[in-house]
Amino acid sequence: MLKRESDCCSGCTWVEAAHWARLLQAKRFPFTFLGTWMGSTRSVSNLILGVFPGVYNPKLANGHDWLPRPETCWKSLTADGQSGLIEPFAKAGMCEVASNMTVKKYRFGKDQEKGDGDDRPRELVVLIPEVLDPRYGMYVWPCAVVLAQYIWFHRRLLFGKRILEIGAGVSLPGIVAAKCGAEVILSDNADFSECLDNCRRSCQMNNLSGIRVIGLTWGHVSPCLLSLAPVDFILGADVLFEPEDFEDVVSTVHYLTERNTHAQFWTTYQVRSANWSIEGLLYKWEMESTHVPLQSFEATKEQLAGSSLPGMHTIQMMVISRKKK
């Protein structure tokens, strides 16, 4: 058995590792083995947004005009009446500086029609803690609200299903799925403990004690990845952000669908360039995508779930699955 990488992972045999190594080699998988496992690491670059605590520069924010200004963090926290929620996390060491955190409230389903035979809650309120930080996964992205709306709209499909969110960050889609009765695992880059802590904060703030949080880096074969049970749905909000990461994301999803060939990858992405495409990668990895019109799940508004997001950003939704043979 392999040595455990962390407490969240169970070991796997060298036979299993060799099997996947051969697959990766045959497919020219961009995966590498984690340092604690095979002695190598993969660097992660381009993670600085140009927005840091105490500094706001729209020219460096890469178009993220929705990012909170530092001077408004504490004001918005108290204005929302959520300041008391910060104290338990600060006492528990989950938040080093409370004034660096805001709590955003997202409300789903308040306009939902009644009388459709669904006895599950018709309204859902989710609280999401955000930390002003240069790492991507510390605040809610416009795509996350759209994906969360899709999840809420199709909540009947998710009850009792096993779901994995990749690149979860503050985990809005995963939290909504869990509130709708799914068995959820949240994951983010194994090297970013702060992002994983933020996943845990979101769970605690929404009284969700049964959600696992694991380190899962796209493009890596790790014990955590190999030990995952088959999942029914994979969630990813704006994980197709950097073209250099596209194949890492697609190949990770391909591996996950090896365990359950009927699994689907639900993902939203922001249109940033007409020249960016994953069609070639989907063909290479024998997968296919289906475009989902935003109007089909009532996500065409500039303000969803009682928030200011997605704003004027152009967001697309697609479902990716294994190609039917």
By helix and strand content, what is the structural category? Answer: alpha/beta
- How much of the sequence lies in strands comes to 15-25%
Cα distance spanning the termini: 35 Å
Computed Rg: 19 Å
Protein name: Methyltransferase 23, arginine
InterPro entries: Methyltransf_16, SAM-dependent_MTases_sf
Family: Belongs to the methyltransferase superfamily. METTL23 family.
GO molecular function: histone H3R17 methyltransferase activity
Care to give the gist of this entry?
By secondary structure, this protein is α/β, with parallel strands linked by helices.
Please provide a written account of the structure:
- It contains 11 helices and 11 strands.
- The longest helix has 14 residues, at 14-27.
- It is an alpha/beta fold.
- Helix 5 (142-153) packs parallel to helix 7.
- The protein has helices at residues 14-27, 35-38, 73-79, 83-91, 142-153, 155-158, 172-179, 193-205, 223-226, 246-259, 279-284; strands at residues 32-33, 101-108, 124-131, 162-165, 183-188, 212-215, 220-221, 233-237, 264-270, 287-292, 315-322.
- Helix 7 links the parallel strand 4 and strand 5.
